[in-house]
């Protein structure tokens, strides 16, 4: 009887989320300086929309229901490594109902892009994500300390629900303190080690040696983000790596 009751409750949660994408927030055009970039002038960002919060397990479940090729048992290994959705006990089950509103993680860049396209959206570009992420929740020193404290904790499990913390000045939640997030151009800072091949790449995005000339050498968190992105491959899935969509 308890099993039936739990199943009914979980079904109600899923039905409430099914087919619903995260609410969009309109981000006005503006400009900012990439803290981790050497001698960087202001970067202009055109108006765009971004999800108010990361994509959740319940939302991703609806995606794999309608797109069987992205279920954990059927996804092609070229598009996702062996850890893809590994915390889901089954193709169409993410576990305890309390995880319905937690961000989906262990999804590859390919899978995240496909989900966003299914919703008529796309992944945000690095400049867009950083522009929103640098919009302070409090003052700059406080948010920097919050981010570094989060980075220092390491991966936590299970993940908290989305929208638990306060939004930034744009009304966007969970840019820091919950998960890392895929961006469309995550690999533009990749260094191969071959100097001729790397001629057009900006190594100073994540190289500690370049910090002395960076726009904001004190923003260690920004260097960490670029270092993390540069370590990824498109098929990788990571325990604390999810995504949100833009438009």
Automatic annotation (TrEMBL):
<keyword id="KW-0732">Signal</keyword>
<dbReference type="InterPro" id="IPR005532">
    <property type="entry name" value="SUMF_dom"/>
</dbReference>
<dbReference type="InterPro" id="IPR051043">
    <property type="entry name" value="Sulfatase_Mod_Factor_Kinase"/>
</dbReference>
<feature type="signal peptide">
    <location>
        <begin position="1"/>
        <end position="21"/>
    </location>
</feature>
<dbReference type="InterPro" id="IPR016187">
    <property type="entry name" value="CTDL_fold"/>
</dbReference>
<protein>
    <recommendedName>
        <fullName>Sulfatase-modifying factor enzyme-like domain-containing protein</fullName>
    </recommendedName>
</protein>
<dbReference type="GO" id="GO:0120147">
    <property type="term" value="F:formylglycine-generating oxidase activity"/>
</dbReference>
<dbReference type="InterPro" id="IPR042095">
    <property type="entry name" value="SUMF_sf"/>
</dbReference>
<feature type="domain" description="Sulfatase-modifying factor enzyme-like">
    <location>
        <begin position="23"/>
        <end position="247"/>
    </location>
</feature>
<dbReference type="Pfam" id="PF03781">
    <property type="entry name" value="FGE-sulfatase"/>
</dbReference>
